[in-house]
From TrEMBL:
Domain of life: Eukaryota
Source species taxonomy: Eukaryota, Fungi, Dikarya, Ascomycota, Pezizomycotina
InterPro entries: Hexapep, Hexapep_transf_CS, Hexapeptide_acetyltransf, Mac_dom, Trimer_LpxA-like_sf
Name listed for the protein in its UniProt record: Maltose/galactoside acetyltransferase domain-containing protein
Molecular functions per Gene Ontology: acetyltransferase activity; O-acyltransferase activity
Annotated family: Belongs to the transferase hexapeptide repeat family.
Pfam families listed in its UniProt record: Hexapep (PF00132), Hexapep_2 (PF14602), Mac (PF12464)
Keywords linked to the UniProt accession: Transferase
Domain Maltose/galactoside acetyltransferase, first and last residues per copy: 8-62
Annotated organism of origin: Acrodontium crateriforme
């Protein structure tokens, strides 16, 4: 195992570092190639897609043995993230996704520093997570020859991030919160809070205990469809 350089350790801690060293260029190139393979894989099985995603984040955990049928094999990956194409990630090695995460089209994740997305989070189309930034002083910034820096981004469990949202370095989105479409999040969001705007500001608290899936009749309708065997429900998460 190659020892991590001091420059890369500074990057991951959010301190000033230099992004265009051979070590970091190589690391980004590895992730670019893995993203290309993921985005261009075509119509593949859940197993293959899961492996391609793990290549992006450099997760070398072996996949479970192949199940007897395709349906049973797909079920082995029911808790793995569902990611629509395309997606672009900077390093991959600083990105961590929880269970049952959904990321819609055209996500951009700059994981200069740690980026975590908690269980059951939903990210709409065109979401950007920018954990990297640059010095304000142009003499220090100095194009590709100057140093950069960053801050960790943490999205806690059960959050919904609306379309075209940008989350900036150093932000934590609290558990169960909602970020309205096209918002720019510059500061931490408390748990169970709805925010929107540029910069994002609190609009209201998140409603809880509504049981809307029951009172709306949606769950009953789904169960009636199950009873009629109108479609294959073997992998439906609500079954």
């Amino acid at each position: 195992m190659v020892e991590m350089s001091e420059n890369r350790r500074r990057m991951e801690k959010g301190e000033l570092y230099y992004a265009f060293t051979s070590e970091l260029v190589k690391a980004r190139s590895r992730c670019t190639a893995a993203c290309h393979a993921f985005n261009n894989a075509g119509d593949v099985t859940r197993r293959t897609k899961t492996q391609l995603w793990r290549n992006i984040v450099d997760d070398r955990t072996p996949l479970p043995p192949q199940a007897a049928t395709q349906e049973e094999d797909d079920e082995l990956f029911a808790d793995d993230a569902w990611i629509e194409l395309p997606i672009r990630v900077d390093y991959g090695t600083n990105l961590s996704l929880g269970k049952n995460v959904f990321i819609n089209f055209n996500a951009t994740i700059l994981d200069t520093c740690k980026v975590t997305i908690g269980d059951r989070c939903l990210l709409a189309a065109n979401v950007s997570l920018f954990s990297g930034t640059h010095p304000l002083d142009p003499d220090v910034r100095n194009g590709t020859k100057g140093p950069e820096l960053g801050g960790e981004i943490h999205i806690e469990e059960d959050c919904w991030i609306g379309g075209n949202v940008t989350i900036l370095p150093g932000v934590r989105i609290g558990k169960g919160s909602v970020v309205g479409a096209a918002s720019v999040v510059t500061k931490d969001v408390p748990p169970y809070t709805v925010v929107a705007g540029n910069p994002a500001r609190k609009l209201k608290d998140v409603p809880r205990g509504t049981q809307a899936e029951v009172t709306s009749g949606a769950l009953d309708a789904l169960q009636r469809d199950y009873a009629k065997n109108e479609y294959d429900i073997s992998n439906d998460s609500v079954a």
